[in-house]
Each structure stands twice: as C-alpha cells, then as structure tokens.
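Bit of a strange request maybe. I'm writing a small parser for structure token strings and I need a real example to test against, not something I typed by hand. Could someone generate the tokens for this chain?
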Amino acid sequence: MLSQKIIRPYVRPYVRPYVARGFHRGLYGNLATAARRGFHESLGSPGADESSPPNEEAPGNEAPRNHRPPQSVSTVSFSTRQFNALDKDVSLLKVQVADIQDSQKDLGRKIDDIKEAIDNNFHAVMGLIFVTVILKAGFDFWRDERKGSTH
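Reply from user aminoacidic:
Good idea to test on real output. This should exercise your parser:
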C-alpha cells in the first residue's frame, strides 16, 4: 500500500488515464449510460430549448422579453429536431417494411410461376404416358389380330 502511494504519482503522468483506471480505451469517456435517442435531461422547463423563441434584448431594455426562470428540478425534454429525427427513422423503417413486403410478393409470384411450370410439365408427361399406353394397347391388339389371321 505504501509503495502504491509512493510510485503512483511518478507513474501516473506517463500512463494514459484509461489505462491507469483499468478501462479499455473504447470505454473511456463513454462510461455513463447512454440516454435513449431523442431524449435528454436539461434544467429548466420542458421544451424550453427550442419551443420558446430566442431571447432578444431591446436596445434600451436589459431584461429579455420572454424570460422564464429555470427550474431546479431536472426534467426530460423532447425537442422538435429530435422528434423529426425519430419521425425520419420511423419513415425509413416503414419504407424498409414496404420493400420487404414487395419483395415477398415478388417471391410469391415467382414461386407461383414455378409451380405453374411444374404443373404444366406434369400434365405434359401424363399426357405422353396416356398416349403411349393407348398406342401400345392398339399396337398389341393389331399384332394379336394379325397373328390370328395368318394362322
């Protein structure tokens, strides 16, 4: 313990802070939990950052026109810029879902076309077998008649 108190002040300036603390360099600076996208904490009234017009001072006045005293309680604020970002994300997801549905419909049509081609080939093969059986039976009948008439 005493050696750590003596050595650490000499070593620490030469070692990067994240190594000295034992953190991986990818985690350094991002140790706090990330807030949900589109939400942030701010002091003041909800939506005060973008919903109220900027405070402009008149040439003779020192007090701003739309002054709101800040509240001491931390509140969650949702700005229009963040709402637009979320709305954009939702619309992108809707477009992706629509693309997936269209590709599924196209795939379904292709599968139906393949099934139809298989059915057509099956019908052609069955017709060929039917015609072959009829011709074979006719040929056998003709051959039996021919053999019987010559004897």
